C-alpha cells in the first residue's frame, strides 16, 4: 500500500470514528419533532462522501456508474440515468417524447397527455413546458390514484401519452394502464418518485412504463441530498434522455470517452460540414441536468439500505392503520388498490365532510404536539395561480381533487420514526378525538 493509499484509509477510518462519537439520542416527547420525512444514514454514507471528495472528480464518475448499475439491478432495468432531481427526471422523460428521432410517435405541440389533477406540480409542468396539453382526471379518495375507467375515458384523438404518479407510494393499476396504452399506441411515463419499491401484481412499479422517474430528495425512499433518475428498457429512449440531460448533444460517450460510436469525425449532421466533431453536434434543445459523483457516492450507500427502508415504511404504515381504524367513521383512511403492495411515502388521512371538526383543527393540534403534517401536495392543481390559465382539458368532475384540497393531509412513516414516536402520534390522535367528543 502506498503512502497516499494509507493516508486515504486513515482518513476514512477517522470518518467512521467521527460518526460513532455522536450516538443517536432517545426521542423526548415535547422536545423532539416527529418529522414527516427525513434522511436516515450512518457512517457508510459519510465514508463514501469523503472518499468521493478525495477523488475530486466533481462531475459524474465511478460512483455515478455504480449507483446507476445498482438501481438498474434492483429494478431489473438496463438503462438508468442519474440526474440532479426528480423534477428534472420528469422534465427529461416528457421531453424525450418530443424528439424528432421518434418520427410519427413524437409528441408535438397541441398533443395531449393524460394525468391527474391531484399530485405534485412537476409531474404536469413538463407537459406545459413542452407545449402539450394536460388532460386531467380525478383520483379516488383513500388510494389517491385514478380508476382505469377514468383514464380510458380521457383518451381523445390527440392523446399521445399518459404520465401519472404512483401517489404516496400507492400504485395505480399499472398493468391495465400499460395494456390501455399499448392498445391505443400511447407512451406511458410512470412518475415513481413516491414509490421506490412498490409492486403491482408482484412486479415493481417503474417497470411497466416506457419511461419511469425517481426522486432522491431527503424526503424520499433513499436520498442523495438532491438527485433523481430516469429508467427505461429502451436503448433508443435512453440515448434521447441522455442527450436532453447532457446539453442536447448527439454524442453518447460517457465522461472521459471520446469515440464510442467509432465515427466521431466521419458523419453528416444537418448543414454542418461533413465530419464535424460528433462530440459537439446538438440534436435536441437540451439542458445540463447531471448530478455529481459526490451525490452518487451517498446514493450507493443508501441503495444497500433500501430493502430495510421499504420494510420500515410498511411497518410504520401498518401501525398507523391499526391505531386509526377505530376512527374511520370520521376519517377516510389510507389504502392500497387490490393487487398492490405499496412502499408507502406517508400516511394520508381525509377528514370526512360530516365529521364534527375540520382539517385545520386536527392539523393544528398535531403541529402543536411537534408532529409534522403536510398537505397532499397541491390538492387540485388547477386552483393554483400558476396553473389557473393553462391550456388543458378536464374529463369528468374533479370533486375528489377539491375535497383533497380542503380535507386531506399526511403524516410520516419514514424509517427514522421509532416505536416511541409512533406511540406519541397515536396518543395525540386519541387526545384530539376525546376533545372532539368522538370517543
What do you see in this structure?
Helix 5 links the parallel strand 2 and strand 3. Strands 1-9-8-5-4-2-3-14 form an eight-stranded mixed sheet, sandwiched between helices. The mean pLDDT is 96. With 439 residues, it is an alpha/beta fold. It folds into two domains: 50-294, 3-Layer(aba) Sandwich (Aspartate Aminotransferase, domain 2); 303-435, Aspartate Aminotransferase, domain 1 (Alpha-Beta Complex), CATH 3.90.1150.10. The protein starts with a helix and ends with a helix. It is built from twelve helices and 15 strands. The protein has helices spanning 3-20, 43-55, 62-75, 86-96, 121-129, 148-153, 174-184, 235-245, 293-324, 359-368, 399-407, 419-435; strands at 79-83, 112-116, 133-137, 159-165, 187-191, 199-200, 203-204, 211-215, 228-232, 331-333, 340-341, 346-351, 374-375, 393-394, 408-412. Helices cover 37% and strands 14% of the residues. Helix 2 (43-55) runs antiparallel to helix 9, helix 4 crosses helix 8 (235-245) and helix 9 crosses helix 12 (419-435).
State the gist of this model.
This protein has helices at 3-20, 43-55, 62-75, 86-96, 121-129, 148-153, 174-184, 235-245, 293-324, 359-368, 399-407, 419-435; strands spanning 79-83, 112-116, 133-137, 159-165, 187-191, 199-200, 203-204, 211-215, 228-232, 331-333, 340-341, 346-351, 374-375, 393-394, 408-412. It is of the alpha/beta class and 439 residues long. It has two domains: 50-294, 3-Layer(aba) Sandwich (Aspartate Aminotransferase, domain 2); 303-435, Alpha-Beta Complex (Aspartate Aminotransferase, domain 1), CATH 3.90.1150.
Amino acid at each position: 500500500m502506498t503512502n497516499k493509499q494509507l493516508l486515504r484509509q486513515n482518513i476514512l477510518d477517522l470518518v467512521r470514528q467521527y460518526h460513532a462519537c455522536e450516538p443517536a439520542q432517545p426521542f423526548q416527547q415535547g422536545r423532539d419533532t416527529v418529522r414527516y420525512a427525513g434522511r436516515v444514514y450512518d457512517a457508510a454514507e459519510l465514508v463514501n462522501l469523503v472518499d468521493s471528495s478525495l477523488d475530486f472528480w466533481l462531475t459524474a464518475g465511478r460512483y455515478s456508474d455504480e449507483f446507476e448499475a445498482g438501481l438498474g439491478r434492483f429494478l431489473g432495468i438496463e438503462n438508468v440515468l442519474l440526474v440532479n432531481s426528480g423534477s428534472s427526471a420528469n422534465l427529461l422523460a416528457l421531453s424525450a417524447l418530443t424528439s424528432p428521432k421518434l418520427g410519427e410517435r413524437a409528441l408535438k405541440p397541441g398533443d395531449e397527455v393524460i394525468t391527474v389533477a391531484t399530485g405534485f406540480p412537476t409531474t404536469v409542468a413538463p407537459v406545459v413546458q413542452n407545449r402539450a396539453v394536460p388532460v386531467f382526471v380525478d383520483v379516488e379518495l383513500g388510494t389517491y390514484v385514478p380508476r382505469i375507467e377514468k383514464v380510458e375515458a380521457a383518451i381523445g384523438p390527440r392523446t399521445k401519452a399518459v404520465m401519472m404518479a404512483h401517489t404516496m407510494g400507492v400504485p395505480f393499476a399499472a398493468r391495465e394502464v400499460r395494456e390501455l396504452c399499448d392498445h391505443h399506441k400511447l407512451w406511458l411515463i410512470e412518475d415513481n418518485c413516491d414509490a421506490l419499491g412498490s409492486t403491482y401484481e408482484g412486479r415493481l412499479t417503474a417497470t411497466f412504463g416506457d419511461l419511469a422517474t425517481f426522486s432522491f430528495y431527503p424526503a424520499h425512499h433513499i436520498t442523495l441530498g438532491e438527485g433523481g433518475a430516469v429508467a427505461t428498457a429502451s436503448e433508443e429512449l435512453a440515448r434521447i434522455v441522455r442527450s436532453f440531460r447532457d446539453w442536447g448533444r448527439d454524442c453518447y460517450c460517457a465522461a472521459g470517452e471520446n469515440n464510442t460510436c467509432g465515427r466521431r469525425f466521419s458523419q453528416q449532421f444537418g448543414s454542418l460540414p461533413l465530419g464535424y466533431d460528433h462530440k459537439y453536434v446538438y440534436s435536441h434543445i437540451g439542458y445540463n441536468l447531471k448530478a455529481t459523483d459526490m451525490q452518487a457516492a451517498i446514493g450507493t450507500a443508501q441503495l444497500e439500505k433500501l430493502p430495510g427502508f421499504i420494510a420500515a415504511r410498511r411497518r410504520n404504515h401498518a401501525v398507523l392503520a391499526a391505531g386509526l381504524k377505530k376512527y374511520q367513521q370520521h376519517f377516510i383512511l389510507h389504502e392500497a388498490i387490490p393487487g398492490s403492495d405499496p412502499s408507502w411515502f406517508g400516511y394520508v388521512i381525509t377528514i370526512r365532510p360530516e365529521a364534527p371538526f375540520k382539517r385545520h383543527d386536527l392539523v393544528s393540534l398535531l403541529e402543536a404536539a411537534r408532529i409534522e403534517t403536510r398537505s397532499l401536495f397541491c390538492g387540485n392543481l388547477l386552483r393554483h395561480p400558476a396553473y389557473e390559465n393553462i391550456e388543458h382539458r378536464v374529463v369528468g368532475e374533479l370533486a375528489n381533487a377539491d375535497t383533497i384540497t380542503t380535507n386531506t393531509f399526511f403524516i410520516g412513516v419514514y424509517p427514522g420514526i421509532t416505536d416511541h414516536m409512533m406511540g406519541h402520534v397515536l396518543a395525540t390522535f386519541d387526545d384530539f378525538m376525546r376533545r372532539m367528543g368522538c370517543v
